[in-house]
Amino acid sequence: DLSDSFRAGKQEIQLNILPQAKTLGLTLRDLAQQVRQAFYGEEAQRIQRGTDDVRVMVRYPENERRSLGNLEDMYIRSSDGSEVPFTSVAKVTYGNSYSSIHRQDQQRIISVRGDVNRVVVTPEAVFKALELSLCEGKTSLSNLQNMCENSQFPGVRFTLDGEQLERTKAIAGIFDTVPLALLIIFALLAVPLKSYMQPLVIMSVIPFGAVGAIVGHYIMGWPLVFFSLLGIIALSGIVVNASLVLVDNINRQRKAGVPIFDAVSNAGTIRFRPIILTSATTFVGLIPLMTNKDPETFMFIPMAISLAFGVLFATVITLLMVPSLYLMLDDFQNWVKNSLAGMLGKDLFEKESTEAAMPLPEAKGVS
Questions:
Q1: Dihedrals φ, ψ of 189, to 5°?
Q2: Does the pTM exceed 0.90?
């Protein structure tokens, strides 16, 4: 259903002064004032009757102001007191007045509203179609600095309002706070693990969770919408759980003296079943919401798809990639230690050799 705030209003008479009226000293204001005085009247005086004021209005007789034809028969008084026919100094046109004028930021606006049938189409698809059909050049409906314009409607600019505007602001706010959320996740992982590198290994599965969410939308035949993005962001804090459990198990075995390769293999074997069962139960629990056809829950289906397929895809990546990254991290750390030890040992050897080669000062006798 489409509706707008524009109301045509009632029909009105618009007076336009002719060029020859200016030679008589008449202005449009004089013309409008005399027409108003003739048909509506001019207050001559007020008479007090008890507690009421009685206005005495002077105007044309009723039989001379019944129709628009009387307007063309009236005479207009010029600045020198002479009277001229109305048709010789003015022209009458007919139009419609505005019943109401809405303004925003001192600009006239007309609001167009519509309800989207989410069963048939998504709001994002409607928004994209409107932007393609209305906006020209680099203008955009969502860009307040470069508002949408169309050469067919000069002087008119199109912009968002209502739910779509709030959604655009929400997306901008989300992208501003996502780095902060990732930094907090990194800090929460770095403190108990006592490492700056292992949190990066754990968080490496987050992008793959987003990939799984996108693939899930393609499989389910759903487009990526605003609630899909919310699901992907929520997924960032869920997919790290399996990686954290796996890395923590490896660290415990290494503290017990198990070689690193055996610790990684044992952790993958021990935590395989819990990780798979956790992801499988999460996916199965979201199936009723993903397959629900109730229009009232349509907005939550994209979020459920993002969570379900993102967790499922990230689990597979976790079992394959996290152990490999852990081994690569250990190799990198050993290489750095060996390189630093070699550099420091060489410098120390050269320093000791230099000190040994320096001649001792000769002792001077006392006479």
A1: -85, -35
A2: no
Q: How many CB atoms lie within 10 A of CB 96?
A: 12
Residues 6+ apart with CB under 8 A from 135: 141, 148, 149, 150, 158
Mean pLDDT of the chain: 80
At residue 100, what is the residue type? S
296/261: higher pLDDT: 261
pLDDT value, residue 65: 82
The answer to whether the beta carbons of residues 176 and 169 sit under 8 Å apart is: no
Q: How many other C-beta atoms can be found within 10 angstroms of the C-beta atom of residue 316?
A: 15
**CATH 1.20.1640.10 residue window(s) in the chain:** 164-340
Query: Whats the size of the chain, residue-wise?
Result: 367
Residues of the chain with CATH 3.30.2090.10: 7-102
Topology of domain 7-102, CATH: 3.30.2090
Q: For the beta carbon of residue 158, count every other beta carbon within 10 angstroms.
A: 17
Give, for 221, the enclosing helix (H) or strand (E). none
Give, in order, the Cα–Cα distances in Å from 90 to each of 41, 78, 95, 119, 348.
Answer: 20, 13, 16, 58, 106
Task: Name the CATH superfamily for 164-340.
Answer: Multidrug efflux transporter AcrB transmembrane domain (1.20.1640.10)
